[in-house]
Amino acid sequence: MADERPMPRLFLIRHGQTEWSINGRHTGRTDIPLTAQGEQEAAEQAKILVGEGKLIDPKNICTVMVSPRIRAHRTFHLLFDHVPEVPHHVSTEEVREWDYGDYEGLLSSEIKQKNPTWNIWKDGCPGGESTEDMCQRVDNVIAKVREHHRAWKEEGKGCRDVVIVAHGHFNRVFISRWINFPLCLGTHFNVEPAGIAILGYNHRNLAEPALNALNLYAKPI
Fold it and tell me: What does pTM read for this prediction?
C-alpha cells in the first residue's frame, strides 16, 4: 500500500504584499496588514490553486501552520475561506518571520549605515535571532513536517499534504534547510509576496527532499 500512495508535499506560502514588503523594510514582529493589492493577489491565488480537484485540495491537507502575524493570518483566510470546510490549522510562533531585533523596520541601506559589513545570512540580527537560532527553529519545523509525511507515506495516517503560511526570510531559510543546504544559501531563493513553493521528494524516496516549484502564480515586485 505504501508504494501506491502519492508522495506527500509541503506547500510553503509567503503572505501577500504589505507596505513594508513594497519599500523593503525588515518586518519581523511588527504586525502590519496586507495592502489592497496584497488581498487581491491572495484571493486570485485561491481561485486558481485552492479547492476540490485543484493543486491545493483541502481534503488532502493534514494540517496548516500559520504565523500569528496578521499579514499571514489574513493570507490564510483569503486562500481557504471560500472552501466548504476550512482545513485544520494552527497559529504558531514556530513559523514567524526572522526576529530582526535592533534592525526591525529598517531598510537594508539604513542597516548598512550602522554596520557596513552586515549580512543577515552570516551575522543574524543583534537583539533578535542569530543564524543559529533561525536554523534550529526552522529545522524543528521541518522535523514535524517530515513526521507527518512519514506517517502518511508509510502508515497511511493523516493526509498527504502540509501547508505553511509564513514570511520571506523564513521561507528562504526553510527551502535551503529542506534540501539539506546551509542556511546561508537561502539568499539564492527569491520568494515573492503570495508566492507558493512546493517542497517534496525525488524518486519517491523520503530520504531525497527536493524543491519542486517556486513562486507559483506570484507577481514579481
Answer: 0.97
